[in-house]
Structures are given as structure tokens and as C-alpha cells.
Fold:
Amino acid sequence: MYLLGIETSCDETAASVILDNLEILSDVVLSQDEIHASYGGVVPELASRQHIATISFVVEECLRRAQVKVQDIDAYGVTQGPGLIGSLLVGLSYAKGLAYYFKKPLIPVDHLEAHIESVFLENRKVSLPAVALLVSGGHTSAFFMKKRLDYQLLGKTRDDAAGEALDKIAKFLELGYPGGPVIDRLAEKADPRAFRFGLPQMTDRSLDFSFSGLKTAALMKIREAKISKKHPRFNDFIASFEQAIIRALLSNLDRTVKAYKPSSLILCGGVARNKKLRIQFEEFAQKRSLASYIPSPKLCTDNAAMVAALALEKLKRQKITSFPLDLNAYPRGTSYMK
Ligand code: KG4
Ligand code: ZN
Structure:
């Protein structure tokens, strides 16, 4: 059985063919980074126009690499939301067209659920219940997963997502877009204790996250210490800010673990590519004798293999709400997560 996944929720046009044993036959991701770089962030109108221009090419290339004919695809999975509405509609409409023409099931999936699913693509036996920490450019959320396809939202960011905070500070320091990978690289051999940042605290003791305070603190330090690329401790500043974000994530995770007592921890989303976060997340889990799972870097950032995998899982379990052609995209929130 061949599953074709399509993902266009933000600024990556992605398509992937997987088999029902979860083998990835092809995984094509066409990034729009170059288009948005000069703006320092994603321009929604440019993103959707670019998806329209490239979606056919990306799907054809993905089928070619998988050596599968489009008429042999057994089911389609597509991201329905959340994301940029114009971008989502391109992938959704394209998938609807294919499913309708070839009379094959169309399985809409949630982008956040798909990020979590990327762990199941590479690990057949994930011990549950798990706490999943999803850290991306658009979201920073923690979920409690009692069993497969069952997600309880425990906390989410009240302002910026972690990736967004990294991207914004990188933009301010003229490091280009997306800033996360540049910060990761610059921080690698630098001193994360050089500049002190506080720990964001929720006054109502909720499990929500907040990163705008750290961002403001970083901007103040940049002004006070005249931080620029020419500053002798520039990389140390970057490493300190990166560490402040990691510390905030893991401190929240500590409270979450104490409250929910999971048997494993999942880290996913684009920021899960960050080298220091990966190491510290694993150490965090080891210290508490918990199993930990992080997808390989390629599957952390937006891709369509995770979309196809989630569609397959829903198809197998018949947890499919519908196959309707009047399916609509949703920009915010989640449709299935309670
Ligand atoms: O999951 P993703 O591809 O898209 C969203 O759903 O948002 O995540 C993109 C985010 C961006 O903020 C980017 O800067 C960040 O992931 N990112 C990283 C790294 N690679 C990507 N952040 C830190 N370190 C990295 N190596
Ligand atoms: Zn994403």
C-alpha cells in the first residue's frame, strides 16, 4: 500500500510517499527560505503563491524518486491545519483534486499531531503514556499522550514560540532567516554562561510557556552591551540566549513530568534539530529514568513523511472523521486534540 503525504502549512512545499510498513520511499521538501530571507520572516502571500508555483513539481518529483505511478497511490494524507490559511489551501486543494480524480481516500491531518507522529515513523515501540514537547517556529506546546492518536494539550505558549524567539533575535542581529540553525551553529563552541537570563515563570502555575520576556531581555542586553557581530563575545551572547530558551523548555518539562508521570518523553518540531537541546533533553530523560525519543533532524522540520505516517495510522485504525471534498483548512487551534 502506498500513501502520498502533502504538507504546505507554512513555507515548505513537501510531498512524501511511504509504504504501509512505514518505509519512506521518498521525502521531498522544497524550502522557500531564500524567498522570505530578505524580509526576516515568512510573508504569507508570497508563501501561498510559491506553493501554487511548485506543488506539481514537488509531487511529481516525489513520485519519481519513489518510483511509483500516481495511479498506484492508495490513499492521500494532507495537512489541514494549523498554519497559514493561503498556504494550507494550496496543499489541501491539490490533494482533494488527486483523491477525487483517482477515487482514493483523502485523510486530513493536524500539523502538530504530524510532528509528534514523526517519532513513530522511526520507533515502532514507543512506551506510552508519553509527554510530547513540540517546539517549532509556530508552536511550543506540551501534550500528554495516553495512547496512539490520543493527545491532551497540557500547555502552550502564551506569546512567541521558541523558534520564533530565536528567529526574531537572529533577525535583529542580522543573522538571516531562519535564525535557529545559525544560532545553533554559532553557539556550538561558545560559553552559554557568559550572559545571564532569568527563567520565565507563570504566575498562575499553569504549564503554559512564554518566550517574549526572554526576547525583550535579549534586546535590552543587546542595547546595553552594544552586542553586534563585531562584539568579542558575540557567540557567547548567542549561546547564552539559546541556553535560556533550552532552560525555559526543560524547566517547564520538569513540572509537567512531575504532574503527569509519563513513562517516556518525546521532543519534536523544527527546534528539536538544535544540537544542545537534543543533548540536554536526553540527559533530562536519563536522569529521571525515562525513555526519550527525538526524530532524526530531517524529520524534525516540516516534511510530508510525518503527514503520510499519521494519515496511515488513522486509516489503519479507522479513526477517520470523513473523506469529504468540502473539507476546509483551519489556521489556528486543532481539530482533533481535546
Ligand atoms: O517545525 P518547523 O519546520 O516549522 C513550523 O511548524 O514552525 O520549525 C521551524 C523552526 C524555525 O523557527 C527555525 O529557526 C527552527 O525551527 N530551527 C531551529 C533549528 N533548525 C530549525 N532552531 C534551533 N536550532 C536548529 N538547528
Ligand atoms: Zn511544523
